[in-house]
């Protein structure tokens, strides 16, 4: 069993297939990349060290090797005399290339991808004529019509004849994450967190999900990204509840599945434009304003609160992700790819399909895109979704002393806090500039 982002025992189709195929022994293999920990992903690298430590303890010993998978996996297969290699299918362009190389290097030993990180494997929901959907709502209906996805029975670690062929490298030291306060890592943490959230918040999810000040969304993205829980488990629990909140949550989970499907069909949308018309848009080069955005010093409190939450927690509320992304693209006129790269570097839940398509949706060049001319107002978003300013005060200490709604526009106060920057841009003007550039595209 070659584990990747799926270090868990419950609801694990690939692990179950490995156990069934290997009644005499299963090697719990994990391959550390030569370059791990990569300096450009300090937050995720730190989180992975925790996941590895947790799972290693859970199963009393991962077999850990370091190097290129196409070299290391066949080596372990030979060493252990394994007859097959079992994995959860990967769906990013990198994972597809890697698995193709490993499959080839394995020769006659099959690489079995018996499961995916999704309730419905990407590429399975198709129109009657076999083509892919480009719009979420009809895709969602078709996805729903596939019916229930019962979880796979859990594997009990003590019942698995684990085999460690020797030569395992040491676990990487648990690392700190550049000042980020990371969430608890591992399957037990994920399951406990989910049960608690389900009991306390799911029924209000539909009415509260857009309110960063309430902070009651599930924060399951990190556990889904790292595969310490499978969405089938979540969907099975949700199916037992009849609230509007549970239905709204299923729909959000389906967005994750939809974006994976879009990536499967259009792999070029991972790093390029889904709607290529926008390649011709006039953009500015990142400079000091990009740095101010990254540091949460734009002078727009709702934007700065989000960017500082990202730095502090490696996570940001969805509503704020949309607002800060819109600010980067439509107030600073930078390409979405710059912001998406920063998010991938800092988010502990950074997921290629969700991140790149989330960014493209905001930038107007993705599937179901918000029309380009709909420009989020950075003050209006705060007033509407953080009405009392509690979210702003939590993340922007310079504004904690500001009472009332003035916290959304400190520059209008008679005595603005001296240590908080003035607005980086004039939003009304930049909005017009965005529309001008859009018109220049020629419709
Ligand atoms: P909840 O509101 O509790 O939602 C439950 C789950 O549904 C999430 O964990 C997630 O798996 C899924 N989900 C919810 N909203 C979306 C959405 N809009 N698109 C896709 N899936 C969704 N999500 C990531 O997992 N990784 C990313 O790298 C990522 N980057 C984003 C970048 C931008 C610019 C935008 C606008 C959105 C991005 N999202 C990303 C989607 C969304 O913001 C996060 O999934 C969500 O904020 C995670 O918090 P939560 O688990 O509390 O969400």
TrEMBL record:
InterPro entries assigned to the protein according to its UniProt record, in alphabetical order: Crypto/Photolyase_FAD-like_sf, Crypto/Photolyase_N_sf, Cryptochr/Photolyase_FAD-bd, Cryptochrome/DNA_photolyase_1, DNA_photolyase_N, Rossmann-like_a/b/a_fold
Free-text cofactor note: Binds 1 FAD per subunit.
GO molecular function: deoxyribodipyrimidine photo-lyase activity; DNA binding; FAD binding
Co-factor(s): FAD
Pfam family, one: DNA_photolyase
GO terms under biological process: response to light stimulus
Gene3D superfamilies associated with the record: 1.25.40.80, DNA Cyclobutane Dipyrimidine Photolyase, subunit A, domain 3, HUPs
Keyword Flavoprotein: yes
Domain of life: Bacteria
List of residues binding FAD: 205, 217-221, 249, 252-259, 349-351
Keywords: Chromophore, FAD, Flavoprotein, Lyase
Domain Photolyase/cryptochrome alpha/beta intervals: 1-122
The family this protein is said to belong to: Belongs to the DNA photolyase family.
Name of this protein: Deoxyribodipyrimidine photo-lyase
């Amino acid at each position: 069993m070659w584990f990747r982002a799926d270090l868990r025992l419950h609801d694990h189709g690939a692990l179950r297939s490995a156990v069934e195929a290997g009644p005499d022994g299963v090697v719990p293999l994990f391959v550390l990349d030569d370059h791990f920990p990569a300096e450009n992903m300090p937050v995720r690298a730190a989180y992975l060290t925790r996941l590895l430590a947790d799972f290693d303890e859970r199963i009393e010993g991962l077999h850990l090797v370091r190097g290129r998978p196409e070299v290391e996996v066949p080596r372990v297969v030979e060493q252990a005399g394994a007859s097959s290699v079992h994995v959860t299918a990967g769906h990013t362009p990198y994972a597809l290339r890697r698995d193709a190389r490993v499959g080839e290097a394995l020769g006659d030993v099959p690489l079995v991808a018996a499961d995916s990180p999704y309730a419905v494997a990407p590429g399975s929901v198709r129109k009657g004529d076999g083509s892919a959907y480009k719009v979420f709502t009809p895709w969602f209906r078709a996805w729903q019509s596939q019916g229930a996805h019962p979880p796979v029975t859990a594997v009990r670690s003590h019942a698995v004849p684990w085999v460690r062929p020797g030569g395992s490298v040491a676990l990487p030291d648990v690392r700190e994450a550049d000042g980020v306060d990371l969430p608890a890592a591992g399957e037990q943490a994920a399951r406990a967190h989910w049960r608690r959230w389900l009991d306390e918040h799911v029924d209000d999810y539909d009415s509260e999900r857009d309110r960063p000040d309430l902070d009651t969304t599930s924060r399951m993205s990190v556990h889904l990204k790292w595969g310490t829980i499978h969405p089938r488990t979540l969907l099975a629990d949700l199916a037992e509840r009849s609230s509007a909140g549970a239905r709204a949550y299923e729909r959000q989970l389906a967005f994750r599945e939809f974006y994976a499907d879009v990536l499967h069909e259009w792999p070029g949308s991972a790093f390029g434009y889904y709607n290529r018309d926008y390649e011709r848009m006039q953009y500015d080069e990142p400079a000091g304003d990009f740095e101010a955005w990254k540091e949460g010093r734009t002078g727009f409190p709702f934007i700065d609160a989000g960017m500082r939450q990202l730095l502090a927690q490696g996570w940001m509320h969805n509503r704020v992700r949309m607002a800060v992304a819109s600010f980067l693209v439509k107030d600073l006129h930078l390409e979405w790819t710059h912001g998406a790269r920063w998010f991938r570097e800092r988010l502990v839940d950074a997921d290629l399909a969700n991140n790149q398509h989330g960014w493209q949706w905001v930038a107007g060049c993705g599937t179901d895109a918000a029309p380009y001319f709909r420009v989020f107002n950075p003050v209006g978003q705060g007033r509407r979704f953080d009405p009392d300013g509690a979210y702003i005060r939590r993340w922007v200490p310079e504004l904690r002393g500001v009472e009332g709604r003035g916290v959304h526009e400190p520059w209008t106060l008679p005595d603005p806090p001296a240590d908080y920057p003035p607005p980086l841009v004039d939003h009304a003007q930049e909005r017009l500039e965005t529309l001008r550039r859009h018109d220049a595209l020629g419709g």
